[in-house]
Write a structure and sequence with these properties.
Elements lengths: L4 E5 L6 H14 L4 E5 L5 H11 L6 H25 L3 E5 L2 H11 L4 H12 L6 E6 L2 H7 L11 H17 L4 E5 L4 H15 L3
Helix pairs in contact: 1-8, 2-3, 3-4, 3-5, 4-5, 4-7
The protein binds thymidine-5'-diphosphate.
Thymidine-5'-diphosphate binds next to helix 1 and helix 4.
């Protein structure tokens, strides 16, 4: 038996963490064993890398992309793959698609190149469904509580991230499901839950 791997994606302030937590709670209420993970982080190594990435000094774009890929490789091997193999569902607050949008798109490293290094690290552990919470860049930034090193890059960076997400969603229409996240969060959670249960009985 294998579980399902669902990732929540979007610009800063889109509400990913809240939606991830509430979606997991709704699934659990249906008797589905569910874990939530966040990126960067989710393992002891990953939390250490998270501090370097978000609280540390400026770094080269490729150093940044490879650190994100490193924490993700650890998370996939240590947490996500074993959970899926045990039949658990994994709800992830960000995923490899954040790297494609932020490092591949907004940092201009190239989506294809960033995808390749992550494919090497993930060995097939890839989100089956990516829920893109769509909010205008400015609105998301206004909602952001405490900007970190990457979240504090400003409006044009945030716009570039949003554009990259739209491109990714167009390229992979089967994998992506886009939801207007400017609505009240309760409505967003309900819509996401419905879509998930449409794809897999729950
Ligand atoms: P996080 O605390 O998760 O913030 P948010 O509430 O915006 O999700 O911080 C993650 C930051 O790291 C965020 O600015 C997005 C960025 N990021 C990348 O640039 N690439 C990645 O692969 C990931 C996972 C996150």
């Amino acid at each position: 038996m294998t579980g399902h791997y669902v990732a929540l994606e979007g610009v800063e302030g889109a509400g990913k963490s809240t939606v991830a937590a509430q979606l997991a709670a709704l699934l659990a209420r249906r008797g589905i064993y569910t874990i939530t993970v966040r990126e960067p982080g989710g393992t002891s190594l990953g939390e250490g890398i998270r501090r370097l990435l978000l609280d540390g000094e400026e770094m080269e774009p490729w150093a940044e992309a490879l650190l994100f890929a490193a924490q993700r490789a650890q998370l996939a091997a240590e947490v996500v793959r074993p959970a899926l193999q045990q039949g658990s569902w994994v709800i992830s607050d960000r995923s490899v698609y954040s790297s494609l949008a932020y490092q591949g798109g907004a940092r201009r490293l190239g989506i294809g190149k960033v995808r390749s290094v992550n494919e090497a690290g993930l060995q097939g552990v890839w989100p089956e469904l990516v829920v893109l919470l769509r909010v205008p860049a400015e609105e998301g930034l206004a909602r952001q509580e405490v900007p970190d090193r990457i979240g504090g890059q400003g409006t044009s960076f945030q716009r570039a991230v949003a554009e990259a997400y739209e491109l990714l969603a167009e390229e992979e229409p089967e994998r992506f499901w886009v939801v207007d996240a400017g609505r009240p969060l309760g409505d967003v959670v309900e819509a996401v839950f419905e879509e998930v249960c449409r794809r897999w009985p729950c």
